Every structure is written in structure tokens, then in C-alpha cells.
Amino acid sequence: MPHRTPDWLLERIALGELPPEELAAARARLASEPGGLERLAMLEADDGATLAKLPPSQVAAEVERRRRVVEASRSRSASTPPRRWLPAVALGVPVAAGLALLMLFSRRELPEESRPQQAVLLETTRTKGLEPKLLIHRQTAGAPEPLADSARVRAGDVLQLSYVSGGRPYGAVLSVDGRGAVTLHAPESPAGPLELKGGTVPLPSAYALDDAPAFERFFFVTSDVPFDMNALMESARQLAREPERARREPLPLPPSLSQSSLLLEKGPRT
Amino acid sequence: MAIDVEACYRRYGPMVLRRCRFLLRDEERAVDAMHDVFVQLLDHQEALKQTAPSSLLHRMATNVCLNRLRSERRRPADSDEELLVRIASLEDMEARTGAVAVLDRLFGREQVSTRTIAVLHLVDGMTYEEVAREVGLSVSGVRKRLRTLRAHLQELEAA
Hints:
The complex is a heterodimer of chains A (270) and B (159). Chain A is of the alpha+beta class and 270 residues long.
């Protein structure tokens, strides 16, 4: 146990949210520490300062406003016309088998799909030859399930992303979510290599969706020349700040960069 | 469990803001994150059973801040922030393996992020026992979670 009462325990002492015996022991411990009671007094003074600076009614209104934005985004998601998708398969299989499948799956080249369930290509400027595109498959107990644009997914779904470069030598894969977060999937860091490989290339690892609301939209950005990843990430962050734009609009990018996207709607599967 | 945001903020808001301030090191970003923590709390209100949610809010604030650190990918200002940013980015690795999500879903558990556990242990200085009680896992469960990240954490622990 560390000598100084840790901050998290100090918070519990101030709130009185510990079992009675523990609370008494923690208070006694704090009182015996040099400056312990002063820390508690400073914390309580900070409580007062925070509530004066950010009054409860003001915070509650802002929280409600943000919640309405999230709810509106969700209801638009829920009102999307139902699409055909493969029936979800319960994950009632041994974990080891599921993970083994995932690992096996991630090491094999994914078959290219030519059915309507294939990823939809948007805003791509190329007109000749094979187009750069993104493929997403969901892990199931059986065969990996290809996901079409606007497919319904939910938190915890494990996805394998793959790309087809279409002859473009450089590219990156990233996603924005309904919470405004931007996640870079490839390269692994903004300073990583942008070179793309040929064929259908699965990213090195699968990806589990988190609990961000409403949607997750994946972008595949390609180029004939190396580009500035930091600028691309900043562009994605700008778009992500407005969830309704992030759901529909392309990334604001210079004409030298092409992009395709695939939107996954978050919510309960039917 | 219906949440009265105003009352909840009055009681827990300063604690949440301090947590966000500690992790994000910026008042404006901390206030913004604090609002999002209460949005998330409302989001989960139907599933809430706790009558003393300081522990839950502390974890939620930690998670919201780690998400921001991860998505912002700012250059860390110092070694403490670097540790946090690196822990935040552990989620990418963890999420991609899918193992935690699958296990939690199979066993019907609330998912506690391994990176949250890492912050509680490495940044907040909680012992395995304290972390275990905080997140509702067994001590061996906490140890196991951190062991899965051992290769990444070794250098962090040495920092």
C-alpha cells in the first residue's frame, strides 16, 4: 500500500462512499499523514469552486443538449430501411475455436466478393481499371460474413478489414465513429509506412467495435504519391466533430487523394 | 435507475472533472470530457444499479479521457503524459485481438478495458487487489489482463 493516501481514495473519503469500517480506517490514515487533512480541505474547496464556475443547471443543460445530438443520430440510424444481411450466428462456440478461426482468417487472403454485399466505393476519382476499395468481414462462428455499406453492427463485433489497392501505391485506412473519435487502422501510426501491397490485403489484426453510438465509418484513402498522414488525421478529426456530416460526407481532402468509405450502422441486430 | 443529472453532477461532477483534468492536463478539454461522462452515464442509466457510483464514474471518466488521448494522438508533453498516451493506445492492440470482447460477451460481463486497469495500476498506483475490487474482477483476472499486455507494459513499468 502506498504511503500517501492516493487521490482516488481521497475522493472516496470526501464522498463518504466506502464501507463504514474502511471509511473510518481511511480517515484515520489520512489524519495521520502530514498534510492529509489539508488535502481533504483543498479538495472540498475545489468542489465549491467547480460548482460555482460550472453551475449544475448549466452542466445539466449541456449534457442534455449533447444527449439529444446522440439520440438524434441514433434515431436516424434506426429509421434506415432494413437491408438484407446474413443471419447473425450466436457466439456459442468455444473461445479457442473462435480465436483460432480469427487468427487463421486474418492470415489468409480474403476472397473477393462480387455480390451486392461488397463494400461500396464512394467519391473515388479513378475511372479506369480496378478501383481501390475496402472490404470488411465480421467474425462469426461459421464463415466470415462480408459486410455491405450500411450493414447493422453492434459493440463487440469483431471485424477484419482488408483493402484492395487498385494499383495505388500509397494509402491509409481510418475510421470515425458516432462519438467523434478517429481511429487509424493502417498504417499503425501516423509515422508508419504508407506503401500498399497488391491483391486483397487483410490488415494484420482484427478489430472489435467499441460502444461508440450510432455508426462507425471506415475510409480508405489512396494516392499515387506519399501524403501527409497528420493532415489526413486532422481532416478526419474535423469531420468527426460533426457526427451527421461524418456519417455522409467525404473527408475534405486535396484532389490528389482518392477515398472510398463504408458505413456501419450501430445498434441491435435483427 | 433514473438519473437526475443536476443532482448527480452536484455530488460527483467535481470529482469527475478532477479526474479528467488529471488525465488530460487541460482545463477546457477536461470540462468537455466531463460533460461526455455524464452523457454516458445517462446512456447507461437503465442498467445502473449502484447507489454510490463514484467508482463507476471514476472509471467512465478514465475511459473517456483515454479515448480522447488515443484519438488526438498529441505529442506527449512529459513522461507522465507519454505513459498515459501509450496506455491509451494499448486499446488499439487489445481491440484488434477481439479476445476481450469475445470473452466478455460469452460470459455476459461488463467489459472493463485492460487499459483502464493499466491506468489504475500504473498511473494511480493501485495494487492488484485494489484494482480488482475497483473493476469487479478477481485479482488473478486483473493479473491475467495485465499479463496479456506484458510485452507492452514491461517498458512502461520500467518508465
